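writing this on my phone so excuse typos. first protein, seq and then structure
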Amino acid sequence: MIKILLIEDDRELCRSIRRELEKNGYMVECCSDGETAMFYALNTDYGYDIAIVDRMLPVIDGLTIIRAMRQKNIQIPVIIITGMSALDDRVDGLDGGADDYLVKPFHIRELLARVRALTRRPHQIQDAELLTCGDLRFDTSTRTLQCSQRKVALTAKEAELLGTLMRQPEAVFSREQLVLKVWGSDSDIEPGNVDNYISFLRRRLRELGSACQIKTIYGTGYRLEESHA
């Protein structure tokens, strides 16, 4: 059974989400303040498979909790739920270590779909694997991408997307193919959302100063290639 850590200070909303998650077969534990949530989020003995985190919390905010998890190399998928809908807020949340971002008010079916997408583990990403392409080295077990002496940690979906591209460098993948490979056939993710994750990965490559690039093949899709310029 998949175990979820739900961090939400609105107790009525928390009870409602918990009830629906449990009806769909998930085990749920709740926290309503940031200090308690930080303790549970950083304690790997509890064995959570995914966390749903409200960004605005008393004592310690949700984004601080997520960053602390990633610094401790706790790489379970994280969904931020928040009323903050501005583009900069979404970018900050995803750059801070979240895997997905859901703006309130939302329908519980959408949250359930996103939980299913993030807890689905494609077979090819389950085993530890070291992938290389040009000057890049990617450890799938820790989601650590390295170029020379620089390293960055990727989110769960960034890791699966990059792993797909790195296993077949120079191959062109359509958006639809990437959705199937990364999110699965029963996902509600729109093919256009792939563009957002490609942008995140391109930013990671720039941070590392890599010679590799994710090229847009217009009318077709995307390809990872080593720049020879």
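second protein below, same order as before
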Amino acid sequence: MAGIAVETRGTIATLTIENVGKRNSVTAKMWHRLPEALSELASDPSVKVLVVRGAGADFSSGADIRDLARILHAPGMPDGGLVTVAENALAEFTKPTVAAIDGFCVGGGWQIAAACDVRIASDRATFGITPARIGIIYPLSGIQRLVSIVGPATAKYLLFSGELISSGQAVSLGMLSQVHPAPGLWAAVDSFAGMLASRSQLSIQAMKQLVHAFAAGEDAAAIGDAWQGEAAASDDAEIGAAAFLAHETPSFSWTGSGFVRRPVV
């Protein structure tokens, strides 16, 4: 049955795209569900890291072709419809996100992966951005994010050709952070997510918002000031310094409770 599944183990949540018989294509109902699931995870103080993956052997083949009109042209939605709303919700998720990619990661599937902070793939993963194959225009948000990741020239090549590329090619283009042999992918993802969960979430969330502000050409000074004030009021710096001097692993205490983040406009 197609759907979006969420599982939490300790401080790490996993969001799984499930439509296995169709390479995890994403239906209109599933695109609707993504922002709702992200909102629930954002408000859960026990969750420090989110892993996004596909069920079975694929990440996602993108938007369900049979649902394409409802997905891309939903009434009252921005350009790109439900895809853009879901993609932006994932990009704006305050906690660190890791896309764990095996098999096909194509079209709207790539938009989901691209909206994550870090992308880790297996050596058998396949990537493609395929609107020119079916006569549609990729959503503005997806084009903008692609250009920011790979640059204009490579974005044109991927968008114009619709060609599928390997994980080796994708990592060379800057689309991926790590590539692992397929049998070791999930162990590598678990290890990386666990490492992120052990870090100061104040540091990570502050720097994530600041990176986004710089990438958007926004003035990050006010955002930085707000975060510096939050850092001064927290115990994380003292905890980290004490653990470093004692050669111990720090147990950071900041959870973000009560802190109001300045929005990036």
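The radius of gyration is 19 Å. thats all i got for now
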